[in-house]
């Protein structure tokens, strides 16, 4: 039997006008119809109808780059340059990383993402099997990959085992409805060109995404140029890694020729504006990327460098900083950033049936509660989503036709249990560090 849901507003995508008092028809995991009460109710008699009231139903958001287990490190080292933050704090703590930290850190992040209306995300970290276990339990969807780098990993040990593990995951999750696997070399300063080449070959063998941090800081460009005499994009191009399966994260320091090249070869970019600002990395040339025709997603990056997992605020920041640096408020529109956070993000991660609330698409949707005072009045539902909504304003989340959160209550995760476990983990981390 089909389910019908309605609310004051339905925002099907950035290409359709917001639908006032619309009715959305869901059959199992898919949307099959959308229309007014008069059109829909007589067509589907005896169906369950849920009226959500004074709310906006919108496509579930996509966090296209993060490191979810790192929520356990939120606030552990602040106000430092990326290389100092990584080398002096994060890498030494990660050398002592435990599987259960990854599992509970993931769950903490999942709670935050669910409450921010995120349905799909992309993760790169260690002990990814634990991330997968938590994601499967939560009902969210994810593209995940074990981070590959040349030095020994606290998770898989020597590099060779990293390739074996990635291939094992690629095989095991080839047909999985919720989980997709990416080959995830960390960067060109933690992976040699030979390592990246092997990653590219592996991604080609399984037609998998290649997920890598690229051109994040000027120090990265200098380090790579010092070692190899070339810029990171040039190396990646020579290795054959720039193609439609590339998910290049950050790209703060891309020059004009590199933007043109990425566009020509259909590579995808993920923009993480708040992490780039917080780490003082700079501001990515987003308007130039969009003008060149590149599909760009939005990511929070890890919760230890952001320090949250709120895609609403990434949309707002992405838009505001471009308007500010260009001294032109028309340079980017609210539709552009919402598209990045919905169906472009979904497509970039390989979930192209998600990101729109139209017949044929997956029923992945979130519900924004207009009873919050900063969401009134509702002249423009799309602008409310982009400029006024915040983490915690989402009352309901549905993924593939199943409720994950209903009226602010997460149905798939025990929130109190997660908070208790994370308190315990904080004590363990402090006892190992100090
Ligand atoms: Ni990152």
Written account of the structure:
The protein contains 16 helices and 20 strands. It is α/β, with parallel strands linked by helices and about 425 residues long. Helix 3 packs parallel to helix 4, helix 12 runs antiparallel to helix 13 and helix 13 packs across helix 15. The longest helix is centred in the C-terminal third of the chain and has 19 residues.
Shape: globular
Mean of pLDDT: 96
The computed structural class is alpha/beta
CATH class of the largest domain: Alpha Beta
Main pleated sheet: 7 strands, mixed
CATH topology of the largest domain: TIM Barrel
Enumerate the spans where pLDDT stays under 50 for 5 or more consecutive residues. none
Number of domains: 2
Bound compounds: nickel (II) ion
Number of helices: 16
Radius of gyration: 21 Å
Highlighted features:
single chain; 434 residues; alpha/beta; Urease, subunit C, domain 1; TIM Barrel; 2 domains; 7-stranded mixed beta sheet; 5-stranded parallel beta sheet; 39% helix; globular; binds nickel (II) ion; Metal-dep_hydrolase_composite
What's the short version?
The chain is an alpha/beta fold. Helices cover 39% and strands 21% of the residues. The protein contains 16 helices and 20 strands.
Write the layout of secondary structure elements.
Layout: E1 3-6, E2 9-10, E3 19-20, E4 23-27, E5 30-35, H1 37-40, E6 48-51, E7 55-59, E8 61-66, H2 82-94, H3 99-115, E9 118-125, H4 128-138, E10 141-148, H5 159-172, E11 179-181, E12 184-185, H6 193-205, E13 210-214, H7 218-228, H8 232-238, E14 246-250, H9 256-264, E15 268-271, H10 273-278, H11 286-292, E16 296-298, H12 311-326, H13 334-341, H14 343-348, E17 365-369, H15 381-388, E18 394-399, E19 402-406, E20 409-410, H16 415-433
Parallel strand pairs: 1-6, 2-7, 8-9, 9-10, 10-11, 10-12, 13-14, 14-15, 15-16
Antiparallel strand pairs: 1-4, 2-3, 4-5, 7-17, 17-18, 18-19, 19-20
Bound molecules: nickel (II) ion.
Nickel (II) ion (NI) binds at residues 65, 67, 213, 249, 301-302.
């Amino acid at each position: 039997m089909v389910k019908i849901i309605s609310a004051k507003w339905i925002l099907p995508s950035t290409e359709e006008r917001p639908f006032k008092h619309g009715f959305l028809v869901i059959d199992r995991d898919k949307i099959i119809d959308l229309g007014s009460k008069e059109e829909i109710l007589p067509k589907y008699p005896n169906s369950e109808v849920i009226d959500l009231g004074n709310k906006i139903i919108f496509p579930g958001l996509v966090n296209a780059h993060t490191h979810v287990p790192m929520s356990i490190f939120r606030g552990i080292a602040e106000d430092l340059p990326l290389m100092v933050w990584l080398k002096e704090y994060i890498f030494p703590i990660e050398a002592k990383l435990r599987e259960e930290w990854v599992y509970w850190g993931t769950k903490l992040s999942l709670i935050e993402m669910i409450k921010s209306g995120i349905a799909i995300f992309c993760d790169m970290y260690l002990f990814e099997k634990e991330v997968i276990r938590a994601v499967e339990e939560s009902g969210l969807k994810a593209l995940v990959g074990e981070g590959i780098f040349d030095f020994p990993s606290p998770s898989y040990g020597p590099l060779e085992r990293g390739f074996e593990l990635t291939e094992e995951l690629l095989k095991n999750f080839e047909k999985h409805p919720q989980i997709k696997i990416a080959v995830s070399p960390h960067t060109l300063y933690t992976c040699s060109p030979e390592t990246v080449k092997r990653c590219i070959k592996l991604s080609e063998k399984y037609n998998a995404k290649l997920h890598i941090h690229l051109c994040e800081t000027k120090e990265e460009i200098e380090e790579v140029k010092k070692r190899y005499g070339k810029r990171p994009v040039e190396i990646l191009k020579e290795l054959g890694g720039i193609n439609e399966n590339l998910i290049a994260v950050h790209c703060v320091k891309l020059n004009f020729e590199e933007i043109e090249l990425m566009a020509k070869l259909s590579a995808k970019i993920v923009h993480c504006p708040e992490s780039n600002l917080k780490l003082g990395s700079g501001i990515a040339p987003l308007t130039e990327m969009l003008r060149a025709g590149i599909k760009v997603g939005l990511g929070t990056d890890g919760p230890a460098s952001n320090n949250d997992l709120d895609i609403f605020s990434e949309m707002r920041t992405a838009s505001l900083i471009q308007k500010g640096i260009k001294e032109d408020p028309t340079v980017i529109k609210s539709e552009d950033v919402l598209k990045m956070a919905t169906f472009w993000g979904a497509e970039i991660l390989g979930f192209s049936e998600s990101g729109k609330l139209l017949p044929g698409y997956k029923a992945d949707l979130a519900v924004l509660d207009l009873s919050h005072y900063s969401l009134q009045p509702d002249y423009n539902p799309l602008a409310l989503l982009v400029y006024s909504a915040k983490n915690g304003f989402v009352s309901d989340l549905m993924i593939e036709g199943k409720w994950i959160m209903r009226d602010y209550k997460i149905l798939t995760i025990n929130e109190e249990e997660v908070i208790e476990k994370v308190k315990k983990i904080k004590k363990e981390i402090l006892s190992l560090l100090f």
